[in-house]
Amino acid sequence: MFSTRLYLRILLSVLLIVLTLGLGLAGILTRQATILGTLALLLGGWLIGALVHYLNSYNRKLKLFFDSIDDDESMLYFPDHIGPQEQRYLYATFNRIYALISAHKKHEFERELHQKEYESWEKLMRVLTHEIMNSITPIVSLSETLLRYFQEDRESQPDQTIADPTHGKVVRGLKTIQCQGQNLIDFTESYRQFSGLRTPERKLFSLTGLIEHLLLLHQEDLQRQHIDLTVDLYQPEITIYADEKMLSQVLINLLKNAMQALTDQEDKKIQLTVTDQGRSLRIQLTDNGPGIPSNLLDDIFIPFFT
């Protein structure tokens, strides 16, 4: 639409210039209207200048538009509510294009920022897991050795230098160190797995059986919290080809999150649904909790964010 109007205006301007100059030259050459012919030539020259100025104004705006893109300008705006209709239409088009380019650049920047954030987390996890494992493993190993010494070799201690009450406290302390240290090792190992998930080991297994095991594992907690959990399968027995351990861990985490989300809920409900999607299955776990606040949605995949 804009180009049609512009071309039409240029064409009419050229025709008017040719007509004006033609009349002026005719008047001068025939000497029948020398003065009018001269005025017509002057008018034609003015029309040429006006047309050049008109075209240059658009050229300048186009140059400004493309220069702003090259320079990554973020505050450029063309006033699309003043001036001729063609100009307003062009400026509105510029603004729309620039808005799309700005939105695309913002998306690319956020994607790059998230990538750098993930890489930072990955580096941090590698350093932490390396340092923690190097520090805690000898402690756990030593505590186990000392614990065996007190439990199995008490008779070899000379003169019963350690009294029974002291012996009990030492054993309990060593057990605590060993237990807490092992928990820390397990936690660190899960932290390490997060930074580099292993290759899935796919095989055929019963999804129905996995879900039954999941329910059995959490049956006590569900009853204690008075949570009504329903399972809706598209058929009684479902066999899938996937990594059973990974899928099991995902379902356990989702179920735990759902149970935690219902802490302050009166009528607590969780539903696990499996539907057939043709060449794939859809496993959906929903609860009637308050949901995730909108301001936290961007943070839920940050490691260990709660």
What is the CATH architecture annotation of the largest domain?
A: 2-Layer Sandwich
Specify the biggest β-sheet.
Answer: 3 strands, mixed
Looking across the biggest beta sheet, what order are the strands in? 2-4-5
In CATH, the homologous superfamily of the largest domain goes by the name: Histidine kinase-like ATPase, C-terminal domain
What CATH calls the topology of the largest domain is: Heat Shock Protein 90
> What's the alpha carbon Rg, rounded to whole Å?
39 Å
What share of the residues lie within helices? 55-70%
CATH class label of the largest domain = Alpha Beta
Compute the number of structural domains: 3
- Quickly give the structural class: mainly alpha
Percentage beta strand = 5-15%
Mean pLDDT: 78
Question: Which key terms come to mind for this protein?
Answer:
single chain; 306 residues; mainly alpha; Heat Shock Protein 90; three-stranded mixed sheet; two-stranded antiparallel sheet; 5 strands
Notes on the structure:
66% of the residues lie in helices and 9% in strands. The protein is elongated and about 135 Å long. A hairpin with a 4-residue loop joins strand 4 and strand 5. 6% of the residues are buried. It folds into three domains: 75 residues; 79 residues; 97 residues, 2-Layer Sandwich (Heat Shock Protein 90), CATH 3.30.565. Pfam families: HATPase_c. InterPro entries: HATPase_C_sf, HATPase_dom, His_kinase_dom.
